[in-house]
Amino acid sequence: MRRRLPALLAAALLVGSFSAGQPVLDSPERRQLEADIQRYEQLQAQRSQELAEIEAALGATAAQLQERIEERNRVSAELAEKRREREGILARIGELEEQRRQTEERIAGLEVRLGEMRTRVSEVLVALYKQRGSPALFALSRSSSFAELRVRNHYVGLLSRQDADVIGELDSLLYALQMERQSLAEQEDQLRQAEAELAAAEAELSAAQERLDAIVADLESTREGQLALRADLIAEQQRLEASLGDLGAALDAEIARLREQERRDREEAARAAQDRERQLEAQRRADAAAEQLGELEAALQPLENGLVRPLDGARLITRFAEVNNSYIALQSPVENAAVHAVGPGVVLATNYLGANLGYLVAVEHGSGLRSIYVNLRPPVVHEDQIVARGDLLGYLGGGTLVHNDTLHFFMQRTAADGEATYVDPAPLLGW
After folding, report:
1. 164 pLDDT higher than 80
2. Left (φ > 0), alpha (ψ -120 to 50) or beta: where does 337 sit?
3. Backbone angles phi, psi at 242, to 5 degrees
4. What is the Cα 347 distance to its own chain's centre?
5. Averaged pLDDT of the chain
6. Distances in Å between the alpha carbon of 221 and those of 213, 218, 224, 227?
7. Cα three-residue angle 359-361-364, rounded to 5 degrees
8. What is the C-alpha separation between 168 and 174, in angstroms, rounded?
């Protein structure tokens, strides 16, 4: 994303800053943008130089170390898959526990109804006892339990319709209770099986993590291995930055599509003036496109730097450009912490970066400002979604090479030509 400084400085006059005002020729915003551009270009130059030095230093061992790096990536992908399996099993256990709870509630309800039925059946038996004239009724009246009463249910035909309904309801109730208890036993078997699968998955997850740690430790034990890891991390960051290059263009294309859709629908509404139903339908579609376009454009209004931090209680552990990085690393006091939008905007991307870095979420805020959040589990937002400041985007822990309490946080400024410069987010967030 390297670009010429004069062209960017000219474009910067059109982009604006973090406030709604237009910067003047010699404004603090212009000077800050110029400094950001120079700093980012220096980072890129330093990375290129560092990669060349690493390649020269590794020499013949580069191919062997690359195989080790690829092995690390395979184990990392395996670890990510084990994590997904574990989360799936946990979700299934949660569903089974909820099913068991509902079954237990139904059983409790059936037992309450059985208690009520006990009273009603006792009344029937008392009535039968008083009518001992019939030998059949006398045999039925001597039933001392529900079970005996059901065994002797061939006598029910001798009862009155009302009494027969009571016995029939009792029979249905006992059958329902039997089925629910059988269902509960099956659910408990499934739950025990899922818990056994979880224990096995936990063991496999731990083994994969140990293998990954051993490979990384082996690489870090030698200078050559450290250099190979460093080169891979630089390449990973360059791939990430390249994948974000077209985000602004994607948003512009979506806005253009909505404008074109609105135009076509309004033209169709005008052409269909003789057909009232067609006209109304075209008008509704045009209004819906205009409403969606309005939401997108409203979300992209310039900010007044009323930003919030993406993690609660986070501390800054890696500064911008500290190790040729174009992000800052923030550490949460808890693992798998919630990640929030630093400001209002529209979600540009929710991309999976692979096992090493997990998911990213990119949010466009307006005035050429964009925030990117890396090392997320599957996000809870989707592309083109409007978000407010502080809205939940997802949770940490998507990558295997970044700890699940750490967020890699990027910010970009985009010029009028669509090219982006990574800037230091720390001053904007109060660090």
Report:
1. no
2. beta
3. -65, -35
4. 13
5. 76
6. 12, 5, 9, 11
7. 165
8. 10
Query: Is the full-model pTM beyond 0.85?
Result: no
CB 345 within 8 A of CB 338: no
CA 341, 346, 348, 352 torsion: positive or negative? positive
Instruction: Give dist(CA 253, CA 245) in Å, integer.
Output: 14
Element (H, E) at 330: strand 328-331
**CA nearest to 243, candidates 319, 328, 349:** 349
Q: Decide if 424 contacts 328 (C-beta within 8 A).
A: yes
Indicate whether 14 pLDDT > 50.
no
Tokens 């949460």 label which residue? 332
- Flag whether pLDDT at 7 surpasses 50: no
pLDDT confidence tier of residue 15, bands split at 50, 70 and 90: very low
Whose structure tokens read 């010029």? 415
Q: Is the pLDDT higher at 216 or at 416? A: 216
CB burial class (10 A; 0-12, 13-18, 19+) of residue 388? Answer: exposed
pLDDT score at 238: 79
With CA atoms as reference, report the closest residue to 150 among 106, 114, 184, 183.
114
**Beta-bridge mates of residue 394:** 339
User: What integer pLDDT is reported at residue 13 of this predicted model?
Assistant: 33
Amino acid letter, residue 142: R
Which of 247, 259, 236 has its CA nearest to residue 400?
236
CA dihedral 223, 225, 231, 237 (to 10 degrees): -120
The length of the chain is: 431
Q: Are 195 and 111 in contact (CB under 8 A)?
A: no
Query: In 122-185, at which residue ranges do the beta strands (DSSP E only) sit?
Result: none
Token pair of 59 as six digits = 């020499």
CA distances from 125 to 148, 166, 174, 320 (A): 12, 11, 18, 86
Q: Give one word for 154, left, alpha or beta, with left for phi > 0 and alpha for psi -120 to 50.
A: alpha
Q: For residue 396, give the 3-state DSSP assignment.
A: strand
Q: Which long-range contacts (CB under 8 A, 24 or more apart) does 38-47 make?
A: 38/5, 39/321, 39/424, 40/326, 40/421, 40/422, 40/423, 41/2, 41/5, 43/321, 43/324, 43/326, 43/422, 44/1, 44/2, 46/324, 47/234, 47/237, 47/238, 47/324
- pLDDT at position 2 is 37
Q: Are 379 and 393 in contact (CB under 8 A)?
A: yes
Q: What DSSP string runs through 334-385?
A: STT-EEE-SSSEEEEEEEE--TTT-EEEEEEEETTEEEEEEEESS-SS-TT-
Whether the Cβ atoms of residue 371 and residue 404 lie closer than 8 Å to each other = no
